[in-house]
Amino acid sequence: MPRFAAAAAVFFIATSAAQAAPNSADILAQSKAAAGGAAWDNVHYIHTRAHGETSGLAGPIDTVEDVHTGAAVSHYQLGPMKGANGFDGKTAWTQDNSGQVAVQGADDARQGAANDAYRTMRAYWYPDRAAAEISYAGAKSDGGANYDIVRITPKGGRPFDMWIDARTHLVGRVVEKTAIDLQTTYLSDYRSVAGKMLPFAIRQSNGETKYDTTIKVESVTFEDTAPAQAFAPPPPPARDFGFLGGQKSTTLPFKLINNHMYVVVKLNGRPYEFLFDTGGSNVITPTVAHELGLKLEGAFQGRGAGEKSQDVAITMVDHMEIGGAYMNKQQFASIALESFGNIEGVPITGIFGYEVFKRFVVRTDYQTNQITLYEPDGFAYHGPGVRVPFKLKESIPTVPGDIDGVPGTFDLDTGSRASVDLMAPFVAKNNLVARFHAKLNGVNGWGVGGPARSWIVRGHRLTLGGVSVDAPVVGLVEAKAGAFADQYSAGNVGAGVLKKFNIVWDYGHLQIFFERNANYDKPDVFNRAGFWANLGGGGFEVIDVYAGSPAAEAGLKNGDHIMAVDGRAAGRDLSLPDFRMRMKEAPGTKLTLDVMRGGQKLQLVITLRDLI
User: Partners of 557 in the beta sheet?
Assistant: First the structure.
């Protein structure tokens, strides 16, 4: 066949295929017909009772949906963990084990709620209920079945794909990219209920199958009415917190170590030193749980700054004291953080924060290293601080701002040692590695899930609402998974910036007050030696040496063990946090390191200098 004839044949085949491509409207019409057709037209409320299982825990799930408005509410009891989540047509909310309610106003929750509401309304069958962009996204085969994929982007929501079985025309799965995960909901075991086909087996997965949630539907009823206020956020629970001795506030000290606040708390009467974190849930190590004789249940997915996951169990603590304040019947996650002592350079026993922040008004004073908890009822702020409203992203306060004029939403995180970490999607979207002329790359943080690598640069100005900080150290994170792969947040603002202010956190009114303190004008200094080290090998174990840094020029290598610094035994006479501070000393300072490398003793001299 001549070349032009072959080209013409290819064109004809492609054109015919394009003409024969399925139409999304036809696919959805077939889907409605297969699911019961006109039987759905007069449905108003759907009440589903089911049995759920996840991470070793199981129990009932009770859900009510309003297919006219998209409002919905689910109550669950999975082992010791109970709670609810809902959407009243305008507001997405969650309720935790203690009955505390949090309104979720961040973009991830808002767009996720819009998508859930669209699916609740079956608006892909009834387009007059909610607007959306709909298109055919191709065909795929998986698990012996063929699917037509319809891509839907509801107004106010984000794209999701409906996989519709080409044989049965029923929805086989829904795939949606959330802030950090690709979430897939598998639907199967369809049964007819009052002439309408519904899935009685549901599995939700983000790809790590050990953490999947499975739901077995037990009953479905179609109802004409729903209880009043069924979808609204529940009223506040009975108070489980207060002050000892009838006080209205309590002030207690904290230690600032690696830019982390460490506070003494008492669990069931026993004192422990915990890291205080704005968005951190109650966490203890298995060691502490064992010491307190607590029962651990489940194995949930725990994630942090690193890219890997870690198992998380659940337990209950009867009584918790923070200075002169207390909280009763507190749910704790148990995570094996004992090894983090090698990263922090101090023993790790637990984390707390969000449960305190949402109950009390909290003042963090980085100038005097003190925390004050106030009675929230009737609290009114009187001071020189700048008010910045915020929204909650699950448990994390987020505020609008910009970095060097590039706008975004920033998480405020006292649990981060860094100044500013910009999320990998935000970095890529705005081409920030090139924009900042980044040259320094390396490990610059560590969390649940392991080390975090970044390009390290110097920003010009960070703004957060009505406050700003000049010349912050900025990490352009490279993460492909974990918390730093969040596609909605621009960045995470840590203690390197927050310690320049004394801050009043009023979660009850979703507002923060920033007061400049004596740290405000101090320069934000980055590591001038150019490497990351943890405790290990009887000294400091070198994890990552930055290319072109003073450490690299001195001959230091990954895997080396620093046994002494200027004659002081590493880890004994000189703590890891103090060594990290030494690496920030004035340019020109020399550090003499006694190093072990494969049984060989070396002495290296590093001359500090600014790297960014």
Answer: none
Q: Distance (Å, rounded) from C-alpha 296 to C-alpha 227?
A: 36
Rounded to the nearest angstrom, the gap between the alpha carbon of residue 431 and the centroid of all alpha carbons in its chain is 23
Rounded to the nearest 10 degrees, how much is the dihedral formed by the CA atoms of 318, 319, 320, 326? 140
Same domain, 542 and 603: yes
> Do residue 202 and residue 293 come from a single domain?
no
CATH number of the domain to which 427 belongs: 2.40.70.10
pLDDT at res. 301: 59
For residues 174-179, give the mean pLDDT.
94
462 shares a domain with 321: no
- Of 197, 223, 249, the residue that ends a domain is 223
Torsion 95-100-103-109 (CA) sign? negative
pLDDT digits 0-9 by tens, 543-563: 999 999 999 999 999 999 999
Mind listing the pLDDT tens digit for each residue in 472-530?
999 999 988 778 889 999 999 999 999 999 999 999 999 999 999 999 999 999 999 99
Kindly report the number of other CB atoms within 10 A of residue 236's CB atom. Answer: 10
Q: How many Cβ atoms from other residues are within 10 Å of residue 218's Cβ?
A: 12
Q: Which domain holds residue 196?
A: 23-223
Q: What average pLDDT does the structure give for the chain?
A: 92
Q: Do 453 and 338 lie in a common domain?
A: no
Q: Are residues 417 and 333 in the same domain?
A: no
Residue 12 forms part of a structural domain: no
Residue 492's nearest CA partner among 145, 192, 179, 245 is 179
Token pair in block for residue 78: 């999975």
First vs last C-alpha separation in the chain: 63
The two most distant CA atoms of the chain are separated, in Å, by 96
Spell out the residues 6+ positions from residue 309 whose beta carbon is closer than 8 angstroms to its own.
208, 211, 301, 302, 303, 449
Answer whether residue 29 is part of any domain.
Answer: yes
Contact indicator for 201, 191 with CB cutoff of 8 Å: no
pLDDT at 303 over 70: no
| CB-count exposure of residue 291 (10 Å: 0-12, 13-18, 19+) | middle
How many C-beta atoms surround the C-beta of residue 261 within 10 A?
24
Same structural domain, 399 and 512: yes
Q: Is residue 44 part of a domain?
A: yes
Residues 213 and 246 in one domain: no
Report the relative pairing of strands 72-78 and 81-87 from DSSP bridges.
antiparallel
Asked if residue 492 belongs to a domain, the reply is yes
Q: How many domains is the chain built from?
A: 4
Q: Which of 374, 394, 412 is the last residue of a domain?
A: 374
Q: What is the pLDDT of residues 190-203, one digit of tens each?
A: 999 999 999 999 99
Q: What is the CATH number of the domain that holds 589?
A: 2.30.42.10
pLDDT in tens, 3-14: 333 333 333 333
- Provide mean pLDDT across the span 50-57: 91
Residue 532, classified by CB atoms within 10 Å of its CB into exposed (0-12), middle (13-18) or buried (19+), is: buried
**pLDDT (mean) for 577-603:** 96
27 and 82 housed in the same domain: yes
Q: Are 506 and 379 in contact (CB under 8 A)?
A: yes
